[in-house]
Design goal:
The structure is a single chain. The chain is built from 11 helices and 3 strands. The chain has helices spanning 7-14, 32-51, 55-70, 98-111, 114-137, 163-166, 173-184, 196-215, 225-234, 238-243, 270-279; strands spanning 95-96, 222-224, 254-256. A 3-stranded antiparallel β-sheet has the order 1-2-3. The chain is globular, with a radius of gyration of 18 Å. Bound molecules: iron/sulfur cluster (SF4) (2 copies). One iron/sulfur cluster is lined by residues 89, 94, 146, 148-149, 155, 157, 161, 165. This is YkgJ family cysteine cluster protein. Residues 256-280 are annotated as: Disordered. Residues 260-280 have a biased composition (Basic residues). It holds the Pfam family CxxCxxCC.
Length: 280
């Protein structure tokens, strides 16, 4: 099965679990792997919210669950991804939740010195400004390399990379190169064959992460990676303040404003309305 390579198709898998849509997505594109991963992620994320532990523990636990599902994919042996292969990181726009952005920040702070952190911050500012300019100009997005991508073509935050980044596996790296070239010319047609079960598990886990955060009154919206990491890096005491429900990510680029605090005036999502009806 050939599925989309760029983020909009991946978010199509994630959105049904988070937006104002029925609890159980019924699209034929959603497989049982999506549902199983969603179910198991719920208990895990609820536990993580209760524990209020370190951000990197969140990412580690989510990654373990993700790998549990991705390891069972029938397409695992066909994956063509390799270290230093980075066309994807130079083309896609990655969306993350605030807690994942905080994990990236905490990971970088754990191994980079002040000078290196300043350089990363400059790259984050550069990419964020270009993305904002594209949005303001309403120009079609042109490919922008992720600020986390090193000169050697490797992800500099690999152990703390977002859930979405860990779940995209191409079955043909030549197609990725071709897709990148096409994107330079403005053509974002999905042309890369991906490991579909890995994608489904990732969609289920990321969607449930967003959903449980929202249910617990936390910011579970999706933000563009570079702008969200920039906010996390510049905000003192960011994890404690995020868990205390401060609205910290308002200056990041929100790519999917499905819930408060970004979507202030909208009615709560249906899944929350159903809950309050039951408890009334
Ligand atoms: S998705 Fe494509 S570009 Fe990215 S690591 Fe895999 S083969 Fe390489
Ligand atoms: S965070 Fe890492 S894996 Fe994800 S797009 Fe950026 S460089 Fe690539």
């Amino acid at each position: 099965m050939r599925v989309g390579y760029y983020l909009p198709p991946l978010r199509d898998f994630i959105a049904p679990a988070t937006q104002d849509t029925p609890m159980s997505p019924s699209s034929s594109a959603i497989s049982s792997v999506f549902h199983q991963a969603s179910r198991e992620a719920r208990g895990l994320v609820e536990q993580l919210v209760r524990k209020k532990g370190e951000s990197l523990d969140w990412v580690d636990d989510l990654r373990q669950l993700q790998e549990h599902f991705m390891d069972k994919s029938p397409q695992k042996a066909q994956r063509d991804c390799r270290s230093g292969c980075s066309a994807c990181c130079m083309t896609v726009q990655v969306d993350i939740t605030p807690i994942e952005a905080i994990a990236v920040r905490d990971y970088m702070k754990s191994y980079l010195d002040q000078e290196a952190l300043q350089k990363v911050e400059q790259r984050l500012v550069h990419v964020t400004k270009r993305r904002i300019a594209q949005i303001r100009a309403q120009a079609p997005a042109t490919p922008l390399a992720c600020a986390m991508l090193g000169m050697d073509g490797r992800c500099q935050i690999y152990p703390a990379r977002p859930v979405i980044c860990s779940g995209v596996f191409s079955l043909d790296h030549y197609s990725c190169d071709e897709a990148r070239e096409n994107a330079q010319g403005g053509d974002y047609s999905p042309t890369v064959p991906l490991d579909n079960d890995a994608l489904q598990a990732t969609g289920g886990i990321s969607g449930t992460l967003q959903r449980v955060l929202v249910e617990k009154g936390l910011d579970g919206n999706l933000y563009e990676l570079n702008s969200a990491v920039l906010v996390a890096l510049r905000t003192p005491n960011v994890l404690a303040r995020y868990l205390a429900k401060e609205d910290l990510f308002r200056s990041a680029i929100c790519t999917d404003a499905h819930s408060p605090p970004r979507k202030r005036n909208a009615p709560p999502p249906k899944f929350l309305r159903r809950q309050s009806n039951r408890s009334a």
